[in-house]
Amino acid sequence: MSMLELTAEGYYLLRALPGGLCAGLTGRKINRTDYTATDSEIRMSDKNLVSSVTGLPAGRVLMLDQVHGDEILHIDRYPRGGRASEGYADGMITSLPGLCLVIRTADCVPVFIYDPVKSILGAVHSGWKGTMLDITGKCIRLMAELYGSDPGRLYSFILPSIGPESYEVKSDVADYFPEHTLKIDGRLYVDLWSGIEDSCIRGGLRPENILNSGICNRKNTDEFFSHRFGDRGRNLNFAFIR
After folding, report:
1. For the chain, domain boundaries
2. Contact between residue 1 and residue 213 where contact means Cβ atoms under 8 Å apart
């Protein structure tokens, strides 16, 4: 897990990040949220966990009601109060330091996009629907439109999620990804990672700035939650501008 460093406290940090960015995730080791509670209670528990590992106030930890779409929220002011969710969306963009963007996953792909020149951060949740809708490409375009980010200066980070040899699908899903579908022993598998990497390249990112952990959560269920393994828990992927 060379891209990730396991801390003594049991959460992970991304290594060697561009200046001004902090990112990581919590997995199975320390996430003790009761996922039989109400949605609001679950979000607040998850917020408190991220707050404890980042040192940021829980009110500065932002989460979404993720709906497998391509809606991206522009967060241009610090939130007031203790909302459990910023709304129904699958992405966020901000320039505000100390505001932690969280993507909750159990198999879908969390992607962070960072502009170290202008200090702009994007975060998206990209399952097969989000990848089909090109939510990562949309985030890149919005960062350019809203803040003038140069895609050639951006970095993207793909965190642990379901890998190409674990994401078995039916033909109705595979048909959306003809260039990213594998056939193994007569079964169809979609490579979401390469689909997202291609979105980054089409969006103007340099290949060397597209960083993928290469860690399949389904193959590492001792470390991470996986919906396909039967888990109800969520990996909490976080990033913020220092």
Report:
1. 4-241
2. yes
